[in-house]
Design goal:
By secondary structure, the protein is α/β, with parallel strands linked by helices. The chain has two domains: 3-152, Glutaredoxin (3-Layer(aba) Sandwich); 167-274, Up-down Bundle (Glutathione S-transferase Yfyf (Class Pi), Chain A, domain 2). The protein contains nine helices and nine strands. The strands form three sheets. Strands 6-5-8-9 form a four-stranded mixed sheet, with helices on both faces. A three-stranded antiparallel sheet has the order 2-1-7, with no helix packed on it. It has a two-stranded parallel sheet with strand order 3-4. Strand 1 (3-5) and strand 2 form a beta hairpin. Helix 1 (59-70) packs parallel to helix 3 (143-152), helix 4 (170-185) packs antiparallel against helix 6 and helix 6 (197-220) crosses helix 8. The radius of gyration is 19 Å and the shape is globular.
Length: 320
Amino acid sequence: MGSLIAGAWRNDRVGAAGPMGRFDRQPMTFRRSVTADGSGDGFMAEPGRYHLYVSYACPWAHRTLIVRTLKRLDDVVSVTAVDPLMGEDGWQFSDADGCGPDPVGGFDHLHEVYTKADPRFTGRVTVPVLWDKERATIVNNESADIIRMFNDAFNAFGDAALDLYPKPMRQEIDRVNERVYETVNNGVYKARFAGTREAYEEAFDALFETFEALELSLSRQRYLAGERITEADWRLFTTLVRFDAVYHGHFKCNKRRLIDYANLWAYARELYQVPGVADTVDMDHIKRHYYWSHDSINPTRIVPKGPEIDFTAPHGRDRR
């Protein structure tokens, strides 16, 4: 991954450690909102107006793909996936399987999308990106914001009956999201990109403490915030589905595997088997991105054949 500095591309590493060797993730820059009526930032929800740039490898982008699918917005918001192999120029468009050329601006690399929106942009070039074709600019590049827009702003064109952030559950959803983000979603990156052993062990311990807490919680209730699926579940799922294949070994998060947790493993299988979700999971893209692109960890760029993980096996949670 690289950065733009005043619009100029610079190839650097995502893993620069901050104070005390801790990995610091930079906040996203574009934080505007699409609304049903265009109030606020002036971006009105309309079919065909918005385009989503993603990587099937990226867990943050994966969230947006899942919610787009579940809300039945496939024909409302178009999508392009970048190549899983990240080279010297960062995320790139290609004709590799599951990818495609950029249909909006004919760009070769994602950083060109950023400089089209802001020629003097400074910051990380990341996915997902929600692009407005009408105003030719980036609306938002924060996955947490985008899934909430998909959840409610486009109800006139998708599945309005599905609400992944219901008002009575928001306090609990936000509480779960905060811990899962800090210790699991971002926690695996804190472990991998730690600059000191102390920072690594701090992230490692927090990750598995949360796994233990989630395992206990899922023994008592079906989903993270209660008895119905919410955005909290999908935010966790995208890390779980990558855990044994990538984070356990490649990121040194190897105390236990996902499959060693009876409830978490069954829960992950249940979510995977929700109609439409399996089509958003591309394990080939996931493994090739991490093992090929992170050559500082894996200089041979050999992508492992395993592990064999059957997310289609019966989960048994419908008998709870």
